[in-house]
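tokens incoming
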């Protein structure tokens, strides 16, 4: 059995996906950008966009019953190579104590040209007592 978690983002219904999927102890969070309430935040600032995207991903993991300590993998999709240090610094500030496996990939672009970074996050809920939660699609 799997559970879908929705954030109310503008593309979830339009493109048919969930913010996160929980199956057993595993949580897969769809790619997150710095889009809040349908608007791209921190235009031109990859560091702050990364912090916002991570926050959105961690919120989904929290709704699944997990926390920062449960994160086991991140994937970073970065538009500009010159932003790697700023994005890596943001990643390190959040995940430095957890040290998940991480892959960074430079891409030609994201769905909105104002988006500089997108991050996928995976978690493993190893507490074995995760309460089943499901949220309705908006």
């Amino acid at each position: 059995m799997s559970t879908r978690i929705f954030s109310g983002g503008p593309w979830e219904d339009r493109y048919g996906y969930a913010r996160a999927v929980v199956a057993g102890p595993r949580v897969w969070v769809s790619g997150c950008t710095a889009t809040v309430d349908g608007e791209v935040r921190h235009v031109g600032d990859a560091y702050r966009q990364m912090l916002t995207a991570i926050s959105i991903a961690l919120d989904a993991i929290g709704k699944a019953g997990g926390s920062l300590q449960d994160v086991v993998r991140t994937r970073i999709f970065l538009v500009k190579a010159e932003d790697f240090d700023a994005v890596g610094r943001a990643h390190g500030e959040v995940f430095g104590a957890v040290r998940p496996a991480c892959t960074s990939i430079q891409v030609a672009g994201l769905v909105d040209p104002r988006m500089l970074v997108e991050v996928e996050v995976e978690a493993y809920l190893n507490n074995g007592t995760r309460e089943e939660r499901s949220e309705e699609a908006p």
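note: The longest helix spans residues 46-63.
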